[in-house]
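#structure-requests
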Amino acid sequence: MSTTPQQPDDGGFWESRTGWRRLKESLLLEPLVGGSRWASVFGSLLLFMFLLQVITGILLTMNYAPSVETAWKSVSFIDREVPFGRFIRALHYWGASAMIVLLLVHIIQTFVWGAYKRPRELTWMLGVLLLFCTLGLAFSGYVLPWDEAAYWATKVGLGIVATVPLVGDYLRTLLQGGPDLGNLTLTRFFTLHAFVLPIAVALLAVVHLYLFRLHGVTPPWWKSPAQLEAAKEPFWPGQAWKDTVAALLLMLALAVWCYYWPAPLRAEADPAKPYEARPEWYFMSLFQLLKYFPSGYEVFGTFVLPSLFFLLLFFWPLLDRNPARNPRQRPVAMSLLTLGSTGLVSLTVFAITTDTRMREPATTVPRPPPVAAGAHQKLQVAKLFSQNCAACHGDDGTGGTVRAGMPSIPDFASLPWQASHSDTAIEHLIQKGKPPLMPAFGEKLSQEQIRGLTLFIRAFGIPARPAQAPAKPAPAVDALPTSRHDARAAPLAVRSSEEDARSLLLSTK
């Protein structure tokens, strides 16, 4: 008589096949040294915000079309026609800011608690990489609505990328997809924002959480080992309850904010329309920093100092050899934290409070076309200047409308500036640009167009005649009035092009 051997009790069907009880115990019953506390909720809040960004991002992509012709229209359709579309986009838009704030607070808290010290060095380094990727997510998503603010801010941002030594131009072309912003720019930024960077953040977060669970929660420095052991408790239910309450309060606050302040959507991007670009608040400190470096030294504000800051932050666990975690026993670390935090906050607040927005220029009466147009007039250089240059330099060439935010912008109407720049120098500036403040136009414009713009710029340096003066035959170049002695001191290339510039200016009036 055969008997069937009795199967051991393995906890049931699901436990024997999935091990869900062991997983539950590993995730929810982890012992917390020192017990649960509200100060430990920021890591869980960051995970919650990332999941919220993923969910709202997926919902937005269902109606978004990344192309120059459809991007702005699809975002407008989401705002106006899709049920709850305006609210979902606001959650995604403001959620990015909330995630950056939480990440900065979490990093500062970790620094103060000394949670980057042995054996948690790699946990800290992954956190710094997560900050870098989160800023990349914010930047890559900014251009996707394709409104005027997104277009010009991204153009400035790519100009900053171009200042990276050796590979800057290559990186800008790679991100931009060509000589200027267009369809390839949108598709590449959409790929980065919706696929590459979210996957990178998810992978980094998984490894970060694994290392966090491996080494455990950093205990308070002010408690003795006996006190910490006595207060030990599992993650569930104490800390899980605190994390849940904090997440619900954050969601409620974010929902109220999004209800009263929806995500902005300005006019559709128009490269020919003047617009003073401004980055989002989390990049305003960098924007303000650029103002403190004279022309030719912008790379220190765009690349050198930010790179040093991130490298110092990344390698700080290896540089700080002080074993103490008590902030009072770490004067160097706390001084650097205070200086760095105060500097970033001060630059951001100062940039926002002192920012002078450009006023929209008054609509001018269209000028009649000249009776006979020369070779340069046939190039429509006035239109070329309006499309490519007027946004920063203004219709009058003085650049006065943006000088408050860009003090180094030249004044084309200044005779000293005209005298100090030859035609070749102006053509070189147009062709090569001056990143990050001025893009290069060598791949966008032909050599003939660049030459026409050079003559157009020369025309700004010719003073207008008084309206009451009687009409007189135009004098020869060598017989100009004595009030233009500055022009006589100019290089030969300046005076040689004056006649062409005069005719060009008169033909556009």
